[in-house]
Design a protein that fits this description.
- The structure is a single chain.
- The protein has six helices and no strands.
- With about 170 residues, the chain is an all-alpha fold.
- It has two domains: about 60 residues, no CATH class; about 90 residues.
- The longest helix has about 35 residues.
Amino acid sequence: MGIYATLLGMKKKPLTITEFARMGGKASMQNRTKAERVAMAKKAAAARWKKAAKIAVVLLLFAGTAQAQEQPKPHLFADLAPYVVLIGGNVADVVTTQQCLQRIGCHELNQAFGQYPSATRLIVAKSISAGAMIVLMRVFETHGHPRLAKFMGYVGGGVTFAAAVHNTGVAR
């Protein structure tokens, strides 16, 4: 049974499946009342909005993921604690080394300084080594490795604090 062309204002001849398909929704719409067509249009619009909402949610999820991957530029010294520990350890080591050297039976173990280095020599050497560590920590911090920078500061400071503690117990 075919749809007759008279319904569409054409000749009285049955339509083939191909001809019917070419008409799209026109054949169906002409057989419906205005209320039915309005209801179908509202349903189609609601489906389009629902699809658009799903696409928007997916895009927002991906946009949120992209934002989470961006790292903010670190401030000049974002976390001062590792720097303070490193500098504090070096200062403590210089002070306790000088105090120890003033006692009988105490000498410097680091061969680079000699057995009885002057205060100036210790301060300059410690300043250079701590300065190099700070520069290296800063490079790591600004190039996406803040944990490594913190690790270096804490370990460097911890080692020099340990040397300072050792110095307080020598030749007492």
